[in-house]
């Protein structure tokens, strides 16, 4: 292909298993990553220099048509304006989770004293790292049960110059409660596993086949397992006035809210995402 538009049209035609708008978005990501070709370059049909090193496009097309996420092919995803390394060991950051981060940054933007934050199930570290970067008074910790995920998170923190302390800890382990002093944290945030296995049949194969199931799914019999553990942990480890923020399954909004109400939290709010779906719970310790 000798021009941006020709290459864009060729790739869009050859990718077969996505709707048109999604295919176009994927191709724009590929062109920008591999050739620094922008959307405007495609519109004006900028020539591609003959010495411009290109990937094996047939291999890229084949991987996409096997439902491998484009983020795994290019190795990164943008989140809150920062570029995060991703791999099959971590969830690919989603726009909804950006909204969760914005809730926290708005609430703590004017904090003058140190704010101690814990991100439970940190994965790629995207939540913890953005909070560390955007809240100058924050002391941020990130926990995960996966050593491979923690390696990705540590790599991201180093590259993005974020000061986050990462540890391998399991919120479902009863001993975790005893490892943290009472009243230590100002803020606990988590995007825990919340998709039930019965919902899996409605999910895209690029998610089911290439993202870690331990970060996605919970048993149908206990869909609120992680929220209960987080609520109990927060009740002990949050300071008076401390807050807990969680991303949730849209089908269990009132039920998740009730978990925090029953365990003594006040000002419990069920909040919607940009699509109007129940997506977050914010709760405070009095």
UniProtKB/TrEMBL annotation:
InterPro entries reported in the protein's UniProt record: DNA_methylase_N6_adenine_CS, HemK-like, Methyltranfer_dom, N5-glutamine_MTase, PrmC_N, RF_methyltr_PrmC, SAM-dependent_MTases_sf
Matching entries from PROSITE patterns are given as: N6_MTASE
Q: Which Gene3D superfamilies match?
A: DNA helicase RuvA subunit, C-terminal domain, Vaccinia Virus protein VP39
Entry keyword annotation includes Methyltransferase: yes
Q: GO molecular function: any one?
A: methyltransferase activity
Where would I find the Methyltransferase domain in this sequence? Answer: 113-246
Q: Name the Gene Ontology biological process terms.
A: methylation
The record's listing under Pfam families reads:
Methyltransf_31, PrmC_N
Q: Report whether Transferase shows up as a keyword of the record.
A: yes
Provide the Release factor glutamine methyltransferase N-terminal domain boundaries.
22-75
| UniProt keyword annotations, A-Z | Methyltransferase, S-adenosyl-L-methionine, Transferase
The protein's matches in PANTHER family, at most eight in alphabetical order, are given as: HEMK METHYLTRANSFERASE, MTRF1L RELEASE FACTOR GLUTAMINE METHYLTRANSFERASE
Q: What protein is this chain from? A: Peptide chain release factor N(5)-glutamine methyltransferase
Question: What organism does this protein naturally occur in?
Answer: Ravibacter arvi
Mind giving the lineage of the organism this protein is from? Bacteria, Pseudomonadati, Bacteroidota, Cytophagia, Cytophagales
